[in-house]
Amino acid sequence: PRCTGPPSRGQGQGGVRMLDVDLPFAPSLHLRHVVLDLNGTIATDGVLNPGVSEALIALSDMLTAHVVTADTHQVAEILRPQLPCELTHLESEGPPAVAKAQLVARLGADQCVVIGNGESDAGAMKIAGLAIGILGEEGLATACLANAKVVCRSAVDALRLLSTPKRLIGTLHG
Fold this sequence. Notes:
This protein is α/β, with parallel strands linked by helices. It has helices spanning 52-59, 76-79, 96-107, 122-127, 142-147, 155-163, 165-172; strands at 19-21, 29-31, 33-37, 43-44, 47-48, 64-69, 86-89, 112-116, 130-134, 150-152. α1 packs parallel to α6. The termini are close together.
């Protein structure tokens, strides 16, 4: 199989951030947002995982990052300066699973990458243009596994996969 063309990176039409991935024998991806949960996905026990901030910065010219949290460890505002993203607190938006799926729908589900590991991520992963499950220290809920197109060892690995679209093409081509 051949790639139908190189993925476009950076500012798309009208200066909008975008990551286009042309997949041979499968629908192309036109991504604008990456949605990640704080605890369990990019942080463990309230501590930001090494490399996350740098990986988010590397993607920032292509995708707008949205970190969502119920703030289980009450550290979101402490970690905020390390996160080049939009931060959404879920406690005011209903059950986390519903709030995450609603956020992805508002952003345009087909333009979102959802990266997660928990049961509350599964609904958002199901409707996203691309879903990446994380099999990290907290494990991976089977509902996430069922909805994931790709599974990575860590959020950093997932973010680096997005930063290197040819790897993503290699994983997803039909």
